Amino acid sequence: MIAELGLAALWLAAALAALQLVSGALGLTRHGETLAGVTRPVAVAQGLLALIAFLCLIYVFAVTDLSVKLVALNSHSMKPLVFKIAGAWGNHEGSMLLWVTVMGMAGGFVALIEKRLPEPTMLATLAGQAFVSLGFYAFLLIASNPFERLSPVPAEGNGLNPLLQDLGLAFHPPTLYLGYVGLSIAFSFAIGALITREVGPAFARAMRPWVLGAWIFLTIGITAGSYWAYYELGWGGWWFWDPVENASLMPWLAATALLHSASVLASRNALRAWTVMLGVVAFSMSMIGTFLVRSGILTSVHAFAVDPERGTFILALLAINIGGALTLFALRASTVTEGERFALVSREGALVFNNVMLSAILGIVLFGTLYPLVAEAMGAKVSVGPPYFNPMSALFAVPMLVVLAIGPLLRWRRDKFARIGKLLVIPALLVVAAGIAVVAIGGVSLLPFLGLALSIGLAWASVLPLRDRNLRRTPLPVWGMVFAHFGIAVALFGMSSESAFTVEKLVAVRTGDVTEVGPWHVKLDSIEPVAGPNWTALEARLLVRYGADGKETRMLPQSRSFWAPPQQTSESALLTRWNGQLYAVLGGEAEDGRWQLRLWWKPFVPLIWIGGLLIALGGLLALAGRVASDVRRIVAKDKIAYRRERQGR
Amino acid sequence: MAIKAKHQRLVLLVIALVVLIGAGLLAAWALRNQASYFYVPAEITANPPESDRAVRLGGMVEKGSIKTEPDGVTIAFVVEDGKARVPVVFKGIVPSLFVEGSGVVAEGKMGADGTFVADNLLAKHDENYVPREMQNMTEAQAKQVVAETK
Predict the structure, then answer these.
(1) A345, A387, A507: residue with CB nearest B34
(2) B125 neighbourhood in chain A, CB within 8 Å
(3) Does A409 reside within a domain?
(4) Mean of the per-residue pLDDT values of chain B
(5) Residue B17 contacts A, CB cutoff 8 Å
(6) Which residues from A are below 8 Å from B54, CB to CB?
(7) Per-residue pLDDT reduced to its tens digit, A522-581
(8) Cβ contact, residue pair B38, A381, below 8 Å
(9) In terms of domains, do A467 and A616 share one?
């Protein structure tokens, strides 16, 4: 019953999206004014219906209704409740339903609150949003119905991939989807502004909070995904340049560029065509990411759909949306008039430079991700990994990081390096000092060396915009910028330190044996069998000490066996100190009663994710500042209107 | 540094295009050199890659070939595809589904002595996760893999 209710809500939402498209489009013509009025309410209703459908899916998963095919294939009655619920979006159909739900709700929210733009632009924007949504509704209803019934009803479900039975799963996909789909709003705004030829500061101001919001979620999603891969896979790495990681990195790069160019457009009325273009590119990257991850073209823990029909469907959606938007851009680009001018040495100039560098990195990542697919189509099997991605992205990242330190100190419009030269003396000296220190330590390769040196200088330079400011009166967006840029420095230091100074040890030990890794002394105390709700495991009791006379602490890495579906995973154990993390993995039993242990000492590695969170926090501060000033403006407007009304009497 | 105002948009466009096209060309060049190619034993013995090039070797783990060295963490085994056999050494914790007679993809380099030195092993995790290269194995091999997981 609940499943049918969900399906009905989904069909109704699709119908409303069609109505929203028609009414929005007709509203732009002379005769459609009567219909235009329904566009906003319809957008809100569409979002709510999608939400109802999604809640229905969560319900059938929560009660493990095995007559629903999706539940039978992906869930199991013995699973803990939180994983049953999270399992609702831990599969292809459910995750696509989550996608349209977020998209519908975001569209509804825009329809409800965005009042600054001219009404025709809003209608075109909402029609654009409906057009994109409609494609995804069709995909769900035709090729991936999440509410399909199963007959006969099986006695038990198949279970969920154990790697996905993790609290991270409850948050990781929704977070990334909020980011992906938030960019769909930026895309729709760009379409709306292009159609009605209203590419200007008002468009950028309307778009900016959505880009910021999407970017915050992407930042958190990538940070969390990286940490998940780090502790769950047990390989000790935090970024593998895996296509699914790149699929989230590419929209982030585009959104980062868009965020900065939208700021220039909003406050300086420059970079008009470029901002619109980035709005299109950012969401295109989200869709390419979804295509790569969900089409089954890649095999990974993320590729749920192995049905080629679905891949073709997503590819068609991709071609229609991206192709259509680029065609519209080509047709209208000439009508986008040039904005305000600026000198090369100016804040705008620095932002343009970093926009181009970000786009170049985006291109590098995109090429490297798509190349194996293209090569395979031509009969060669290749994989592209760190030897390509690391140096190639660093080539553009290093100049970007240098300009990142300088740019925020420059004035808008026109400036001279001589004016800020004095400020940059200390950061430059810090870079040199850090470089010498790293060389003195020795054994560090080029990229981590550059990273360590630059991160120190950048950390100092990133807080310089706060100099001579009254900190209490500093606007929140400035704080946001400082936090985000400082976060980049922190994350960069963590990444470089991890790759420069990690110590690894792989041994086979008997119980009672002591082994050393970096400054740590690790003793295998015992191996014990333990059991969880749907798994059994062998657990190593390790007693570890930092230095010969440090305090003894216990670490408990496990080798787990799940029974639904039958699979083995290793649960790594982590011990965090202020200066790094000790990472332990229990391997198999070697001959003669020895146990394999893999240990890493990773100095300052947590800074990677702390930096990621600082970057997201910076975004949050900027967003709070923007929203607060928007609210203030609306309140002030109402006051003025009220006064005028009274005076008029 | 004042550019003639009239041409500013054009200049910026040209600079951006040059950088982006440059990045594209550079990427294409690097991809040709850095992509790691996939081999099956018959190919790698007939036409071995240079010993400093990262490649992937895929095939079946020969029955009775897995041996653990005295250090307890280095293993040696043979990957075969019915036509050729390649000895492989690997130091590390093997994936839990790495067993004799099952499929494996080894990432690493081909040594000059004809031994493949693997830094990473990918084994079949479950019916939903097959290394991409293993999807095109011969039918008999595929059947064998399927039979094992049932």
Answers:
(1) A387
(2) 567
(3) no
(4) 77
(5) no
(6) 385, 387
(7) 999 999 999 888 788 999 999 999 988 889 999 999 988 877 667 777 889 999 999 999
(8) yes
(9) yes
pLDDT band at B54 (very low <50, low <70, confident <90, very high): confident
Above 0.85 for ipTM, yes or no?
no
Task: Confirm or reject contact between A382 and chain B (CB < 8 A).
Answer: yes
Domain around A561: 503-603
What is the percentage of chain A residues whose pLDDT exceeds 90?
Answer: 59
Please tell me the predicted confidence (pLDDT) of residue A564. Answer: 66
- B37 is an annotated ligand-binding site residue: no
Question: Looking at beta carbons, which residues of chain A come within 8 Å of B36?
Answer: 382-385, 387
Is the pLDDT reported for residue B147 higher than 70?
no
Alpha helices in A196-271 (DSSP H): 201-232, 243-268
Strand partners, A515: A522
The yes-or-no verdict on residue A379 having pLDDT over 60 is yes
Domain count, chain A: 3
CB of A337 less than 8 A from some CB of B: no
Among candidates B15, B27, B96 on the partner chain, residue whose Cβ is nearest the Cβ of A363: B27
Domain span at residue B29 reads 5-34
Distance (Å, whole) CA B49 – CA A553: 47
Residue A367 touches partner B, C-beta closer than 8 Å: yes
Q: Is residue B129 annotated as involved in ligand binding?
A: yes
**Which of A388, A395, A588 lies nearest to residue B34, judging by beta carbons?**
A388
State pLDDT tens for residues A191-245.
999 999 989 899 999 999 999 999 999 999 999 889 988 887 777 889 989 888 8
The CATH number covering residue B93 comes to: 2.40.50.140
Domain check: are A106 and A246 in the same one? Answer: yes
Tokens 């050494």 belong to residue: B89
Computed over every residue of chain A, the mean pLDDT equals 89
Q: CB–CB of B38 and A382 under 8 A?
A: yes
For residue A24, which of A110, A117, A91, A119 has the smallest C-alpha distance? A119
| A107 and A205, same domain (yes or no) | yes
Characterise A538 by phi-psi region: left (phi > 0), alpha (psi -120 to 50), beta (else). Answer: beta
CA angle A622, A623, A629 (to 5 degrees): 90
CB–CB of A587 and B8 under 8 A? no
Find the closest chain B residue to A388 by CA distance: B34
The token duo for A426 is 């200390």
Average pLDDT over residues A458-481: 93
Which tokens hold the place of A118?
A: 């001219």
> Long-range contacts of range A301-306, CB-CB < 8 Å, 24 or more positions apart?
A301/A161, A301/A163, A301/A164, A301/A244, A301/B129, A302/A244, A304/A91, A304/A92, A304/A95, A305/A92, A305/A144, A306/B128
User: How far is A196 from chain B, CA to nearest CA, in Å?
Assistant: 22
Q: Is B94 on the interface with A (CB under 8 A)?
A: yes
